[in-house]
Amino acid sequence: MGRIPSGRPALRRLYVRLGSVIRMRPRAIHREVVEGIAEAPYSNVTIKTDVAKDAFSYLLEHREEFPGVVVEKRYLRDYPYKELGAQLFGTLREISPHELKERRYRGVAPGTRVGKDGIEETYDKYLRGVDGYTRVVINALGNRDDTRRARVRRPIQGDQLRLTLDLGLQRAANDAMKRAIAAANLHGNGAKAGAYVAIDPRNGEVLALGSYPSFDANLFAKPLSQSRFDQLNSQANGAPLFNRAIAATYPTGSTFKPITAMAALESGIIDTGSIITDTGSFQLGNLLLQNARGASYGPLNVTQALKVSSDVFFYTLGERANPLPGEVIQTWARKLGLGRPTGIDIPGEPKGLVPDADWRNTGYAAYQKCTNRHHLEERTSAALFACGGIERPWSTGDNVNLAIGQGDLQATPLQMAVAYSTIVNGGHVVRPHLGWKIEDGLGRQIEEITKLPRRKVNFSSVDQQAILEGLRGAAMEDGGTSAAVMKGFPLTVYGKTGTVERPGQPDQSWYVAYVPHKTRPILVAVTIERGGFGAETAAPAARLILSEWFDVADKQFVEGTSADR
């Protein structure tokens, strides 16, 4: 396809001249021409986009030397804030033959550039506008008849989309991630990546959302080489294209404990005055589990257990919940927003996983069937490679692990933000969204984007208050797991640290914080891969985000030393 016909010396000379100006090999030019004609025989073929200005000017000034070559200006998207929220926007690319058959693209012409991924895809019908065109006449021989007058239609500008994002908060959150990762690496953790979400817990408006590391969104406004694309996907570089805020699933550590608390309170396993004595250890069969760093907290109710993040207290709840019908912890996790997409208005959300007996037992049955078929011994490396990792049935230990956010649980930072929002706002499961309103080219509002709550979850206000008091104590009272980080903050913070154990590598740091305010409430979720304890990196980053939102002058990175898991 790339070979230039030997009987076309004039064509070869044209390609050589053109290639020397736009810096392309003649065979590459010919390949673009052949492929373009095959797709749209009567349209101009784009040889190269984004040529240098001097080449553009030269071709205009020497048109007679390049017969058949048309030089046109093409407008490209511009992202002035570069790395800020780059994973949110998506890209533009030519509509595919398959998409042309879809209902949402009815009436769209072949060759139209449409949104792909992110905001560009979700709001494409507003942003796309209408392409202009030049209609030409084709004679009986199938050639263009340039003696006949062409019909021209001018393009129609698309509408504008105004986002819920706050630019200052987005910038501050991105800077907070850099500082948190730098702090983690002072401890030799080798941290590279993390994510943050800030939403209005009343209605799900996304105030800031980002993934670190990021990339310059302008890269995708122009043709991108395969090698550069591979670099942006490389794990060695932190996979900048990957939107960890909405698509990365992790165990959440102790940030899951308020969900366990709600499940235990609402199912009657405990009430707000029930006492469990934390001796520092928890016996489960032959397994002895302990609090982080061997701490012992004595008699605790649920509020006190959340304040100090007693693992023993929540291990006990996990054990008590396991034989009850309905799998109460799993049921409440799903009610509050885990184990399903949040419905945010950009594509790419996974469901996540709230592990239960059915999931594990079904996986184990498939594992046994596979090992039998291949005559492999269970729980060997060969069986793991061939048949996956669900190598045993469900046990009480799985529920105990889930109760503190460890084990097989998989949730995104956005899902955790929604779950906490549901608790603090009284049970409305908000639908997070970035779109705020549609405007015309003059900035006049055409349509306001509203996203109603997905459902209402009913729970006791007494239970809610007991959980909130525990979160307030954790952030604002002496002995709380993030009190050292939040000390001196001028507003009341409800916060929960989390530390996820990662075998063979540093822990993952989590923090979820809520600040009530009459007109500007905010809920923030932060995670730092390989970040260490929750109070060491994620909580200080969250404080920086809160400081920006409430215009608090203190912008110090206040690192805690919590042992919270």
Defining traits:
alpha+beta, 3-stranded antiparallel sheet, 565 residues, 35% helix, 5-stranded antiparallel sheet
Strand content: 15-25%
What structural category arises from helix and sheet content? alpha+beta
Spatial order of strands in the largest sheet = 7-6-18-17-16
Q: In which range does the helix fraction lie?
A: 25-40%
Gyration radius, in Å: 29 Å
Q: Low-confidence segments, ≥5 residues, pLDDT <50? A: none
What best-fitting shape do the alpha-carbon axes yield? elongated
Biggest sheet layout: 5 strands, antiparallel
What is the number of helical segments per DSSP (H or I, 4+ residues)?
21
Q: How far is the first residue's CA from the last residue's CA?
A: 60 Å
Average pLDDT, rounded to a whole number, is 90
How many beta-strand segments? 18
Structural overview:
This protein is of the alpha+beta class and 565 residues long. Among the domains are: 57 residues, no CATH class; 29 residues, no CATH class. The protein contains 21 helices and 18 strands. It has a five-stranded antiparallel β-sheet with strand order 7-6-18-17-16, with helices on both faces. A three-stranded antiparallel β-sheet has the order 5-13-14, with no helix packed on it. It is elongated, with a radius of gyration of 29 Å. The termini are far apart. The model has no long low-confidence stretch (mean pLDDT 90).
